[in-house]
Amino acid sequence: MAGDTNFVFHELRDTLRVMKNVTVSMDDAVAEWARLEAARRNTSVSRLLGELLAEKMRHDDAYQRALQDWQHRERSWSSDGQPYPGRGVL
After folding, report:
1. CATH of domain 8-72
2. Distance of CA 88 to CAs 4, 48, 84, Å?
3. For the whole model, what pTM was predicted?
4. What is the DSSP letter of 81?
5. What residues does each domain of the chain span?
6. Whole-angstrom Cα distance, residue 15 to residue 9?
């Protein structure tokens, strides 16, 4: 029995998140789209906006990490003082 209680507690702990309430202002057309999209996904407008913003945040974070990795990598390419070929050169 004690093992079952720990398992249930673990599941509850992982599913509980602290959420912040915010007020969002948007154009009527955007609000209508959000209501329709939320209904299509069988969710609330609040949850839809939270998921869309979370995905945007993950995308932006991944882009920034990739850009920083590229900027800080060892530069192995150089022109050795020669000009780079133009776009018309194959």
Report:
1. 1.10.1220
2. 69, 47, 12
3. 0.56
4. T
5. 8-72
6. 10
Mark 43-64 as b/e (b = at least 16 C-beta within 10 Å).
eebeebbeeeeeeeeeeeeeee
- Condensed to tens digits (0 to 9), the pLDDT of residues 60-87 reads 988 888 888 888 876 666 667 777 777 7
Query: How far apart (Å, rounded) are the C-alpha atoms in residues 35 and 48?
Result: 9
- Using CA atoms, how far residue 27 sits from 24, 30, 32, 75, in Å, is 10, 5, 9, 47
**Amino acid letter for position 3:** G
For the cut 90, the answer to whether the pLDDT of residue 44 exceeds it is yes
Across 15-35, b (16+ Cβ under 10 Å) vs e yields eeeeeeeeeeeeeeeeeeebe
Give me Rg for the CA atoms of the chain: 24
Question: What stretch of H or E contains 52?
Answer: helix 45-72
